[in-house]
Amino acid sequence: MTYFLHFGNALPNYSRLMPPARQITLGRASQWPATRINPASSSVSTRKASKAAPSTDRFEKSTESTRLYAAIHKLLPPAGQKQLEQLLEKGILHQSKAEDGHSTLYHLHALVNKPRQKGYQGAELLREIVEILAQPSVITQTIGPLSDDAIRKILAYRQHPETDPQHGTLKTRSLRPVTAQDLDVEVSASCVAACLMYCLAVKEPAELARHIAELTSPTNSFSKKTSFKQISPDAPEKAVEILKAKGIPFRQSGKNELTLQVQVPTAGVIRAIEDQHAERGTYHRNAVESIYQSALMHLATNTYDPATDFRGEMHNPNNISKGLSADEKTFLETILRGEVKTITYQSIVYNETPGKEGNYLQGYHRTFEETQADVKAELDKGNFVIVGLLDTDNKAKIDVGHEVTLTKAFHDPATGKLKFLLADSHNDIPNLVTEDASELIPRIHHATLPAKHARPIVEKIARLSGILVPDEHDEKKYTIPTILKPTKTELPNPFRKG
Fold first, then answer.
1. Residues 390, 398: Cα–Cα separation, whole Å
2. pLDDT exceeds 60 at position 233
3. Phi and psi of 210, rounded to 5°?
4. What's the pTM value of the predicted model, to 2 decimals?
């Protein structure tokens, strides 16, 4: 790559985005558009509060386990029974990494054995989550249509918010007036939530089953443990302030531990109940996908509205857009997966010229080989990597942003080329797909890695005084998106000898 000075400010009507002057939102539809706390204790511990409790599952190797299995097996259709049998054979049913120490089997049984929020059908929820755990790649973010009755309910609650079942108990800023047309969501921007759902379905099935069992209970929420340091790694003493600003209910559950209450607005519940009746064989979300993605998006920002799939800004909820900001995405992933840090690989500028407004790709902060090595190293450890991909038009304007989960890197035995296996919740394909590194790597705008691995990379990027622009060397190996032409003097390249 050729190394140039940052040139954004030298271009008419462009402004540098380091940090972004125009917040990039992450979503398939994005057009780049009273608890007493002891914060003093938060600065002395690095313990991971999300570590699963010791197993309390009495059923794992007992006759009671057999009884629970038989009880849910008979409630499933033939296809679901086969999937449940596969989960048993793979040991997934007895996996017990849930925070309460109970197994996947225990929480699946709870779906049909404990009270559900009115409107949910326990047996249908069971069928849906068994399908997801048996084949997590089926997870989709595509929002299904609402019935006339569901539309009337949502509109009535918006017109008379005092009648909303969660009025006064849900801390949300997403209750904007809406019309029936607003509820017809053509393209969903919940890809971040779908990626996290996939990660839990594969890595922590018992915890995902617990979340679903609690979310579909009469509380319409699930609990999640975290720590002061996870909420605010650089200033743990500010964790309480951050949670209050985000409107997230919480309590202190240990010396350095916080337990969050992850809620979902009534519109999300209505959508999920409707999605129990989604036509089989379509790629619309089912109830489990719907309720979980709505809850995670609302956890990231309480301006998120599951009725419309739009979110607002924290200080201006009526300024709506799609997707999540980079900070919101990192916060959400940290809560669900542990402390992570986002590495931004692409350099973006904003054009304010009337008729040309938008974000444009101007270069990179890492060579393609370095980016490739960063994500491959994490995948080789058996960890998943969630990345944000960008596509540009022929003028370098950002067309769309989307999150996918990289699950594996491997070399094609026939060609020797490096390929990535990934889960994509928006391609209407129920299986994992492969993509050549030569096609994927130049499209990566950002990736989240464990903080201890990402921090040295982020610090190295911060020391750069310029940007990297692909040259003929890169063009031989990678398919490169259209980028803006640099206009500043080339610098000595610190990335390549000679």
1. 7
2. yes
3. -65, -45
4. 0.88
